């Protein structure tokens, strides 16, 4: 059964990815079809291309939070400084009270790159990690919400969601549930994941890495490109947002547990999540104007999602994946694509898949491969992950 849902406003949004730093750069990349994937460096083996964010290593955390220094938290800091997000969060804190604003973050690997570096710094023959390695503040999955909460001076509930590729989307659902239950009045919601050797080599071991930039939905698609991103949203009641703010209208999740790394071939869990999101939003399939696909670029995932989407929507709703711009940003992808969906709603934009000359002829859904300018009122954003985790969000304009 869908969770009873009261619409919530995305009162402030920001994102940093290979597309660019901040909402304006993200919007420009979408409209001008400027992808951010580029050849990998030696640190990214065995990937051919990655979605790397420039300038992360130069980011400095506030001195009092120096113990949290790792690539994941530096990327989070970079995003918090964009689009007036820091000031908006502080104003919300001052208005509602620090204890009434939650932090709900999605991440898949957190600061694991810091642990990788610590292992490389071990003295020869030693099994002990360096004494200056702070696992709790860097690698630990709770490092991210702990850092964000401290950075923003918040004292409300804090939660990490780590459900593979659905983490960033699932953070929205969990935050909405907490607000509905009266645990908080608003939430800083988002996802952050950064490139690390474990992730890249893990996908390489599964033979899922594309030799070039990923091309979701293409007839000759050949795998994923791993990327990194940070995306944050101030999720508030509509009265605490500016008039006309994009709203979270519904959310749905499922767990089909079909296989650890392969999706259910018919997309049964994906169908369940999308249907639950529609029911939570009290909408019919015909009322969705665009679907942001999970669309990783692998043969199995894209085919499954096409079957699931066409089962519910036929070919009546345009859909596309934006991972050709950013790569698959793992635990951040659901939050990043929620921000992308919000920008598309504001601009009336269906961003066609990048680098696709011909859509898989077996697909039945209406996959866009060129940008389309159309009026949008409601968008469905999909995230599907390892272990059969599925989550769908419905975003739209206030009725």
TrEMBL record:
Q: Which InterPro entries match?
A: Beta-ketoacyl_synthase, Ketoacyl_synth_AS, Ketoacyl_synth_C, Ketoacyl_synth_N, PKS_Beta-ketoAc_synthase_dom, Thiolase-like
Origin, by domain of life? Bacteria
Which PROSITE patterns did the record assign? Answer: KS3_1, KS3_2
Q: Which SMART domains match?
A: PKS_KS (SM00825)
Keywords for this entry? Transferase
Q: Which CDD domains match?
A: KAS_I_II (cd00834)
Describe the location of the Ketosynthase family 3 (KS3) domain by residue ranges.
1-397
Does this UniProt record's set of keywords contain Transferase? Answer: yes
Q: Does the keyword Ribonucleoprotein apply?
A: no
What NCBIfam families does UniProt report for this protein, alphabetically? PRK09185.1
Annotated family: Belongs to the thiolase-like superfamily. Beta-ketoacyl-ACP synthases family.
What is the protein name stated in its UniProt record? Answer: Beta-ketoacyl-[acyl-carrier-protein] synthase family protein
Record organism: Pseudoroseomonas ludipueritiae
């Amino acid at each position: 059964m869908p969770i009873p849902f009261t619409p919530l406003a995305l009162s402030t949004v920001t994102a940093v990815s290979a597309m660019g730093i901040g909402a304006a750069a993200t919007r420009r990349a979408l409209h001008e079809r400027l992808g951010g994937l580029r050849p990998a460096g030696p640190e990214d083996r065995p990937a051919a291309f990655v979605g790397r964010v420039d300038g992360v290593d130069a980011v400095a955390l506030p001195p009092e939070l120096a113990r949290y220094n790792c690539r994941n938290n530096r990327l989070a800091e970079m995003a918090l400084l964009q689009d007036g997000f820091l000031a908006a969060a502080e104003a919300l804190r001052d208005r509602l009270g620090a204890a009434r604003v939650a932090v709900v973050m999605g991440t898949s690997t957190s600061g694991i790159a810091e642990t990788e570096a610590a292992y490389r710094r071990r003295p020869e023959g030693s099994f002990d990690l360096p004494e200056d390695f702070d696992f709790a503040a860097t690698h630990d999955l709770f490092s991210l919400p702990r850092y964000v909460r401290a950075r923003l001076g918040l004292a409300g509930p804090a939660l990490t969601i780590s459900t593979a590729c659905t983490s960033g989307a699932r953070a929205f659902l969990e935050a909405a549930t907490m607000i509905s239950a009266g645990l908080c009045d608003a939430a800083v919601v988002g996802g952050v994941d950064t490139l690390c050797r474990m992730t890249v080599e893990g996908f390489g071991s599964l033979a899922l890495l594309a030799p070039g930039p990923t091309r979701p939905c293409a007839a000759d698609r050949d795998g994923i490109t791993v990327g990194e991103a940070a995306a944050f949203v101030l999720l508030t009641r509509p009265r605490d947002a500016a008039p006309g703010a994009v709203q979270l209208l519904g959310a749905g999740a499922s767990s089909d547990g079909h296989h650890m790394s392969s999706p259910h071939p018919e997309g049964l869990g994906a169908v369940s999540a999308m249907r639950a999101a529609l029911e939570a939003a009290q909408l019919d399939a015909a009322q969705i104007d665009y679907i942001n696909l999970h669309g990783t670029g692998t043969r199995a995932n894209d085919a499954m999602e096409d079957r699931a989407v066409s089962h519910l929507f036929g070919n009546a709703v345009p859909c596309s994946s934006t991972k050709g711009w950013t790569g698959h940003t793992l635990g951040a992808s659901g939050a990043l694509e929620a921000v992308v969906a919000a920008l598309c709603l504001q601009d009336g934009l269906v961003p066609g898949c990048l680098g696709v000359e011909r859509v898989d002829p077996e697909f039945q859904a209406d996959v866009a491969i060129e940008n389309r300018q159309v009026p949008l009122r409601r968008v469905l954003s999909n995230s599907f992950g390892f272990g059969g985790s599925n989550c769908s969000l419905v975003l739209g304009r206030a009725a």
